[in-house]
Amino acid sequence: MAYKRHAIILAALLVSGMILAACTTGLTPDTDPAGPDEISDVVDSSPVATMPLTEAGESSEEMPTAIPLWTPTAAPAPTQANHAATTDTDTTPSVDESLDPNTVAVVNGTVITREMYERHLAPAQAHLLTQPGMDARTVEGEEALRQLHEQVLDWLIDQALIEQAATREGISISNDEIEAAIAQMRGDDDARFASWLEASGLTIDSLREQVRMDLITAAIRDRITASLSRQTEQINVRHILLSQEEVARTVLAELRQGANFIATARQYSEDELTRDSGGEMGFIPRGVMSPAFEAAAFDLQPGEISDVVYTEWGLHIIQLVEIDPARSVPDEYWPVVQQRAFEDWLAEQREAASIRRNTP
After folding, report:
1. Alpha-carbon distance 298 to 296, whole Å?
2. CATH 1.10.4030.10 fits domain 7-71+89-226+336-357
């Protein structure tokens, strides 16, 4: 069972996506938080770039880690021999053993205590252990739990960075705003709300804390994305999606020898959504596709065909059809562009921060 980065957090950690949805749209929670398998089904279905939501562990009401704007119905993993080429390198953070055992991290001087960490970990871990197919005694289960521990700490570090930015920007959330958001979530059914809290592993105080951070995060994200332009360079591309490198190399050779890309895509592509249209994906802006796909596509000139591109969705051969230097980003892509901008900002905060970590 594959547990990708953020997938467990989405399913288990404080269901803040559901909370944020309620805060901003008045939704009342009406489902239990989704499990890792349910979230992974969505994450694994789309090559659109992963998104951090509110940078807190999100659940099913808010959008998952990727918005399935363009979703191949057949996106097999690359061959085992080339799997390493499609995955991130090991970026396991170093541990500062000089930290007090009761401190799990220090972020620009802000201490994240072990008590705080365990308070957030407990409901996430409890929920994870109830998921179908999750067995902590197996190698996969042990790895899922290890990832969860790291992800909870990563999330708390991100929250510290966001709150520090909010302080610098003079952003604060009043108790009235928090209570108003919770009132929207509660609606007219106190019993249902209480049942949802219990199922989510939340207390009313931890819910207030989470709502406050979600509203702060939303305010920071709004400021970051306010200056983004809807008019941006976009490219019109076609692609062929394959699962086996040998087949991909054969198809690429045929294209290099002059085979028609549209006809070849119809013959070979394993992406059932775009295959019949000859691999046509339409115009896409930066920030909505997987990084490897995007880098290769935007490096092409009109008419050019890429080499085989490895992503988590399979092996792609890309043809650039047209470049539009100033095209309006469609509504369906705009949230993804905004999220990528927020993720880039958060990555910059991490890079610039002084972060000391202990063993979670």
Report:
1. 6
2. yes
